[in-house]
Amino acid sequence: MNAPGNVWQGAGRRIHLQEVGLRDGLQMEKALVPTADKIALCNALSATGVAKIEVTSFTSPTAIPALRDAEIVMREITRRPGTVYTALVPNLRGAERAIESRTDELNLVMSVSATHNLANLRMTQAQSFDALAQVVARAQSAQVAVNVSLSCVFGCPMEGDVPEAQVFDWVQRFVDLGVCGITLCDTTGMAYPTQVHQLTAAARVRWPGVAFTLHFHNTRGMGLANVLAAIDAGADRFDASLGGLGGCPYAPGASGNVCSEEIAHALALMGYATGVDLDGLLAAARQLPALIGHDIPSQIAKAGPRLALHPVPADFDAVRARALAR
Ligand code: COA
Ligand code: ZN
User: Fold this and answer.
1) Per-domain residue ranges for the chain?
2) Which residue's alpha carbon is nearest to atom 33 within ligand 1?
3) What is the 3-state secondary structure (H, E, C) of 98-139?
4) Phi and psi angles of residue 162, each rounded to the nearest 5 degrees, phi first
5) Which of 90, 118, 244, 265 is disulfide-compatible with 256, CB 3.0–4.6 A?
């Protein structure tokens, strides 16, 4: 939905921005955002042209009360052709709910860290894998696409570094099941650029046919640097959240995802083609504080885009006259 000549459209490499604020962001919020407002926000995000929107999660309403209206939201949003509407699904029950609600893609989740998997999903990794294999089979029989998000790929807040071989073993197991995409998640902002470059490049060499998404949190201020490092290593799909909302309820210290409008702004300046209307994204982000009852991390929502210029100070003419008179 970009006007021709939109200044925020680069002509360079296509980078897919995938909006996760409605799920990764809202799942953490204390205030319950009214269902109608979630639907309106999703529609506004669709209109900006993002490639994919994680609309909600079909999790237990006791575990994630903020998203207990998943069915209504998924059914009542307006679907823009070209945007993929995905949802997080933890188990077979969630898959049935998501399929019933006409979700385009199921985003399954498990952790490459045994400790984080138990804390977040209350299952051992073997139990998670068996359960998810059933979900993949169910989705395949319903002809619904599956993406798997692997948590703690760049480090676990409880275990520390996770060996690359262990990460890649889980990737291989899901690739063997025939999933369409894999998301490498930096769940708690432990990733750093050289690590990201190395792991992304290695994954792309080993699985050239798999659509990898990179999912970074900005917990330690390295989010944008990590996105750029991943692009340099050939990645072209990124999760990001409006306003920089986000966090994992079972990952101590986790903070917001990389911020959609910050990433869209930086990538457009660098000439990448995101297909996203930055002005629309900014307008949506600026509505967030009223919806969630607090400020948002987004720097661009505060500062405006780089060339959103300010008037000169009121005393400018006098200052200039004095300077020239010297
Ligand atoms: N949708 C709706 N309800 C669900 C459900 C689903 N997908 N999965 C489980 N439930 C319900 C069960 O019916 C049961 O309800 P009851 O207490 O009324 O009988 C309750 O949740 C507990 O079910 P149980 O099978 O014992 O699972 P659990 O409590 O171990 O929950 C998870 C396992 C993973 C499904 C649950 O903890 C969850 O949804 N967690 C959210 C994980 C998440 O999204 N984390 C953040 C993203 S990384
Ligand atoms: Zn996340």
Assistant:
1) 6-325
2) 121
3) HHHCCCCEEEEEEECCHHHHHHHHCCCHHHHHHHHHHHHHHH
4) -110, 125
5) 244
Q: Is the CB of 100 under 6 A from ligand 1?
A: no
144 lines ligand 1 (CB under 6 A): no
- What pLDDT was estimated at residue 8? 66
**How buried is residue 169: exposed, middle or buried, by Cβ count under 10 Å (0-12/13-18/19+)?**
exposed
> Contact, 105 vs 144, CB < 8 A?
yes
Whole-model pTM?
Answer: 0.94
Class of domain 6-325 as given by CATH:
alpha beta
pLDDT confidence band for 5 (50 / 70 / 90): very low
* DSSP tally for the chain: helices H, then strands E: 12, 8
Q: What's the rounded Cα separation, in Å, for the pair 253 and 155?
A: 13
Q: Quick one: pLDDT band at residue 11, thresholds 50, 70, 90? A: confident
Ion ligand 2 — residues with CB < 5 Å:
24
Rounded to a whole number, what is the distance in angstroms from the first to the last CA of the chain?
53
Cα–Cα dist 156/115, whole Å: 8
Answer whether 284 contacts ligand 1 (Cβ < 6 A): no
Ligand nearest to the CA of 110: 1
**Which of 28, 55, 60 is the pocket-test mutation for ligand 1 (most atoms within 8 Å of CB)?**
60
